[in-house]
Design a protein that fits this description.
Helix content is about 35%, strand content about 20%. The N and C termini lie far apart (about 45 Å).
């Protein structure tokens, strides 16, 4: 009701939800509530209706090569997950795509040729040719955990040398 596209509407609705939670005192104090977010879409449409990866292009699609070959791209889910606490992402991870054929097909759907994949991501592309085992992981955001423990809404307040909005360290030239 306040935006001209779905992505912006979702972003603004989230901000409104958070602000209403604060103003109506619906957010519990001194409580840490966690949840796992799973089943991210593998692809999404950009503002020009072009398919692109929605999260991490190196994630394994649920259903593997068969899904990439036989399903509509916007229906394919990825093996990706986030751990959220009190609405803040605490960790993000995925099962990584470890099959070269599957990786090439996923990038092909997003508009890349195999040659582009080989050129841009040569180390992975070459490693996959030797039989990379299945692997997964997650990266925790320790600074975000400290932000919650410190009861701050701004991550820059808990980082020793935060960068400004232009990604510059103000202490460096």
């Amino acid at each position: 009701f306040i935006a001209d596209n779905e992505k912006r509407a979702t972003e603004l609705a989230g901000q409104i939800r958070t602000e209403l939670g604060k103003r109506l005192d619906l957010i519990k104090k001194d409580v840490f509530e966690f949840c796992w977010i799973v089943d991210f879409p593998m692809f999404e449409l950009d503002e020009h209706d072009k398919l692109q990866f929605s999260h991490n292009p190196f994630s394994m699609p649920q259903g593997g090569l068969d899904a990439l070959t036989n399903e509509k791209p916007l229906d394919i889910l990825a093996y990706q997950y986030d751990l959220v606490c009190n609405g803040y992402e605490m960790a993000s991870g995925a099962v990584r795509n470890h099959n070269p054929e599957t990786m090439v097909k996923a990038f092909e759907i997003a508009g890349y040729s195999e040659k582009e994949v080989e050129t841009r991501f040569g180390a992975l592309y070459n490693a996959f040719q030797y039989g990379t085992p299945p692997h997964a992981g997650a990266a925790p955001g320790l600074d975000r955990m400290v932000m919650l423990i410190a009861d701050s809404d701004n991550i820059r307040e808990v980082i020793a040398f935060p960068k400004n909005k232009k990604a510059r360290d103000v202490l460096m030239r």
